[in-house]
């Protein structure tokens, strides 16, 4: 998700300056290039963007659910004839519309309601990176029989170290999250083709990067603002000064599933 660079913030930057910097960066879209030189995160071995490009090359009608700013779709070298993306946050929709215009993609603003605004059997491929919620019944409905869903999901307990640095001790994450995800897919009429999970090391080299990340990836610390969590951020800042980085671990799950013909049914 975030960059590979390993440089730290400018020497001598004060805690207050770093907090102000991290609190001022725009959070629209899913472009994480600001983190270059400020934070690193390992990438999953499966290469999600490469998989999306491969599946898109064989599709005729594709949908990207919760596209963010359209960053993944923008890398697709051979888009299908019909390409649609959705997002529920207006700033993301505007960014995605600009980003995906060269591909001829349509960007649709949706609500947080469970129904997708598309007819049955509209797509032969649906993709989604880091969805907040996976609507299996709706995915089965809008996919054609034999159609494929490919998704990289946020695993249970992702960036737990960051969450606990702000919130204190948390309940243990669900170790069976990938298996439960697969079971939900099967219950909705999918055949699971692949499900994998990986834990990825993440390092934050200054508290501005921590502040920006927590503002951008809102599920890490719900309700986060720099003002509300200033004492905890100061502790993180002091730890980075002592140790050189704040280390956390992201968790990702890849799932690919195909709709079984004439076997689509509801699942909670």
UniProtKB/TrEMBL annotation:
Stored CDD domains: AdoMet_MTases
MF (Gene Ontology): S-adenosylmethionine-dependent methyltransferase activity
Keywords tagged on the record: Methyltransferase, Transferase
InterPro entries assigned to the protein according to its UniProt record, in alphabetical order: 23S_rRNA_MeTrnsfrase_RlmA, Methyltransf_11, SAM-dependent_MTases_sf
GO biological process: methylation
Pfam families referenced in this protein's UniProt entry, alphabetically: Methyltransf_11
Start and end residues of each Methyltransferase type domain: 63-150
Name listed for the protein in its UniProt record: Type 11 methyltransferase
Species the sequence originates in: Actinoplanes friuliensis DSM 7358
